[in-house]
Design brief:
- With 188 residues, the chain is of the alpha+beta class.
- It has seven helices and four strands, in the order ααααβαβαββα.
- A four-stranded mixed beta sheet has the order 2-1-3-4, with helices on both faces.
- Helix 5 links the parallel strand 1 and strand 2.
Length: 188
């Protein structure tokens, strides 16, 4: 899934990125040429494409540990910082993205022999509201592919055939746990 997200992000940059001022245009360079090429910024009933992209970049950076993606997200936010600061109420999703960028974040990794073994831990994590977090599930089947995309998962392995959860904050991880109650405690 992460590789597809990275491929789509590359395509989005190729077609929509403004190399001069930053941010993403409303329509791609492969579309019909209009008089102006607007950029959507206002977060109304639906968040703007630029605020969603900034959040997606941050989440990808947290999932993969890639600093170049983090830098792109910061550039995305910087491109609109002046306008956002004038009227933050009109940019709610952008504000959440800025909070995600500067606030503490959690990276939660579930390592298990297979997804079925991981299911109880997945359900426990889903039962909590954990803003500013990303979750990765690493199984024996997906490990090789995921390590190519996210080297930070290298030493995150299942212990004694059990689903093992690593709760990290800003990439600094606590000791792994295999008990649901311990996961619950770590998430608070």
């Amino acid at each position: 899934m992460c590789s597809i997200a990275l491929q789509l992000q590359e395509k989005q940059f190729a077609l929509f990125w403004d190399n001069e001022e930053g941010g993403f245009y409303f329509y791609g360079s492969d579309g019909e040429q209009l008089l102006v090429r607007p950029k959507e910024l206002y977060d109304g009933a639906m968040p703007s494409g630029n605020s969603v992209t900034a959040m997606n970049l941050l989440r990808l950076a947290r999932l993969t540990g890639k600093n170049d993606i983090m830098r792109l997200s910061s550039e995305q936010i910087s491109a609109f910082a002046g306008e956002i600061s004038l009227y933050p109420q009109a940019h709610a999703h952008f504000m959440m993205t800025i909070q995600f960028l500067f606030g503490p974040t959690k990276e939660i990794i579930i390592a298990a022999p297979d997804k079925k073994v991981a299911e109880e831990m997945i359900q426990e994590i889903r039962a909590h509201f954990i803003p500013n977090s990303v979750v990765s599930v690493v199984t024996d089947e997906t490990r090789e592919k995921l390590l190519l995309l996210a080297p930070l998962l290298t030493d995150k392995t299942a212990r004694k055939g059990k689903a093992t959860v690593y709760v990290c904050e800003n990439f600094a991880c606590q000791a792994p746990v295999t008990d649901v109650q311990m996961v619950r405690e770590r998430l608070h």
